[in-house]
Design a protein that fits this description.
Strand content: over 45%
Distance between the termini: 44 Å
Largest sheet: 5 strands, mixed
Radius of gyration: 15 Å
Number of helices: 3
Oligomer: single chain
Helix content: 25-40%
Shape: globular
Order of helices and strands: HHEHEEEE
Low-confidence stretches: none
Mean pLDDT: 96
């Protein structure tokens, strides 16, 4: 049995669906794009989140405190495919509302996907701050 290599357009569409759901603060749609065993590394958090459930708990704490995404813009995308999956990286500018006001971030993000039947599912997300001046 051969392992399918996803097409670049398929990867870009899967990543866009994640960004769109995040930008809408659509919890159900956003987390449906991640595998239960997905891991997450965010520069804003003290530790790696080792599964989707851990991130869902964190997300819920954010939204219960008034957090929501106001905008999320993606550019400078790179798609790298391989048999069974892909890596998508891009730069994002995000504005969020918090209980304390608005915050804005400029970050680099990588999302690792694996082929899961006829779709791609995200298995890892990594965010790092964009260096000043970029």
């Amino acid at each position: 049995m051969s392992v399918r290599t996803p097409g670049e357009d398929e990867v870009a569409a899967a990543a866009a669906a994640i960004v769109d759901a995040f930008a809408a603060t659509d919890t159900r749609r956003y987390f449906a794009r991640f595998a239960p065993d997905a891991s997450f590394v965010f520069h804003t958090e003290a530790a790696r989140l080792d599964d989707r459930a851990s991130y869902e708990i964190l997300w819920r704490s954010w939204t219960e405190s008034g957090w929501r995404v106001l905008s999320c813009t993606s550019w400078d995308a790179l798609v790298q495919t391989y048999p069974g999956g892909a890596v998508f990286s891009h730069t994002v500018a995000t504005r969020v509302a918090t209980g304390a006001g608005e915050e804005a971030y400029r970050e680099r993000e990588s999302i690792v996907f694996r082929v899961d039947g006829d779709r791609l599912v995200a298995i890892h997300e990594h965010l790092s701050p964009l260096p000043p001046g970029h």
